[in-house]
Amino acid sequence: MVDMLKGIAASDGVAVAKAYLLVQPDLSFSKVSVEDTDAEAKRLDDALSKSTEELQFIRDKAAQTLGEAEAQVFDAHLMVLSDPEMVGQIKQNISDNKVNAESALTEVTDMYIGMFEAMEDNAYMQERAADIRDVTKRVLAHLLQVTLPNPSMINEEVVVVAHDLTPSDTAQLDRNFVKAFVTDIGGRTSHSAIMARSLEIPAIVGTKEITDKVAANQMLAVNGITGDVILDPTEEQKAEFIAAGEAYAAQKAEWEKLKHAKTVTADGKHFELAANIGTPKDLTGVNNNGAEAVGLYRTEFLYMDSPDFPTEEDQYVAYKAVLEGMDGKPVVVRTMDIGGDKELPYLTLPHEMNPFLGYRALRISLSSLGEDMFRTQLRALLRASVHGNLRIMFPMVATLGEFRSAKALYTEERQKLIDEGVAVADHIEVGIMIEIPAAAVIADKFAKEVDFFSIGTNDLIQYTMAADRMNERVSYLYQPYNPSILRLIKHVVDSAHKEGKWAGMCGEMAGDQTAVPLLMGIGLDEFSMSATSILKTRSLMKRLDTTKMQELATRALDDCDTMEEVEALVAEYLA
Ligand code: PEP
Ligand code: MG
């Protein structure tokens, strides 16, 4: 029987390849007594040297693909492996207690981990504990003769299958070999899904059970447009998927013809189509897809890709590169938005029950722990501002008080730089993301003080519907076209316009082909999305008339009770 799974279509494209399981193997073992302790010490030495060899390889690969700074984390692992004191203690444990290497190893490393973790306030010690935990896992895997998965070691065409992928796992995937990925959990707006779209890797998330159903090397056919995965496809099915992939490629080639075209509707109105980026490297995709601006630069990836807090100079270099790369076109840089599903290995945050509702983004920047980091970022941005058309925005603003505090720190740093004789741009627009319903509801108040709004629907929808954006079990409640969401958006856009300000959107909804006609009708000014959605959106806008879309939006807002009714109405207008 042919097995088929359905998940959430997260990144367009089709692939047929064998599965690479990015799943943690079982590392359980029993403590046993041994007679020949020399042989046991030799098993340990073998496992240590295989681990060293493997880590050295991963380190070199990381240095080539991600850069020297990222590779340094593996140096720390290599140091643990060659620590004579620790290795000596493990061997001592084997010979004194006549136990197997697995248990001697974990007894000693657990003691070190416990000792370092007890130093709760010391981030350096917390990192050492994490390093030892990682290294122990690797050595244990060699002792037990099981393989630890490692995306950077993939060197043939595969579909990666995982329970979940973190944004940093996703960043390590090599597009030349990873033809698609499929996960058990996640939603369309998880950051791994967003990154898949910018890397142009077809992806399906939230299948609930792919890791239970698929074995290593099993053949898979994956369609990231429909969300279908077929296990062990027949030759006929393979041909069908390959044909679907070719049709998608042909469609993309059609859209590409619009790369240098202006975004104008059938009745000649212009909308700004911008791209979302995570690193200066994404500019290639931005320019290849004919973006008119960068509407969201998620700067937290700069922090996540770095072994420690990036310095003011590191940040200045990155911001300058993006501003210059955009050649005078607008670039909206969002200040650091750590928290939720984005973590920093070197910043230990307290464990929280609800990280998306917790200590994150601007809340960190305005706290005593984050203020210096925030000031450093503002200085780097201000210094870079002379190299292009910079706009700054703050994430996760709930209250006017938060905006005023952030703006005050910005104004202070600006003044300090001017006093130091450093050049900064004369005028930089400072805006906020609208991601929290409280801010959306009083957008009329915010509009008097900010220069612009960018609506972050990825979060705004999850907070309005009380449906976790990462949780596939409640993904049916993640409803961009629900009239409640459309009303909030309209209120935000109207409030901005009343004060002569502009309103954009940088949540994934901005590139959603059902939402675009509605947003045009609502009067959104700027649409910022994964670069790979730009050309299809330009193509869609080209054939739509704004007066008709205004009528559509009014009918959706006034007459529709449910998301399904809105979808049906849009389909009627697009037919
Ligand atoms: C959003 O919430 O819509 C947004 C763009 O920010 P992020 O996806 O990074 O949370
Ligand atoms: Mg957000």
Automatic annotation (TrEMBL):
Keyword GTP-binding: no
Compartmental location: Cytoplasm
Entry annotated with the keyword Coiled coil: yes
Gene Ontology CC entries for this record: cytoplasm
PROSITE patterns associated with the record: PEP_ENZYMES_2 (PS00742), PEP_ENZYMES_PHOS_SITE (PS00370)
Domain Phosphotransferase system enzyme I N-terminal as annotated: residue spans: 6-128
Keywords: Coiled coil, Cytoplasm, Kinase, Magnesium, Metal-binding, Phosphotransferase system, Pyruvate, Sugar transport, Transferase, Transport
Cofactors: Mg(2+)
Binding positions (Mg(2+)): 435, 459
Protein name, entry field: Phosphoenolpyruvate-protein phosphotransferase
Species of origin: Enterococcus sulfureus ATCC 49903
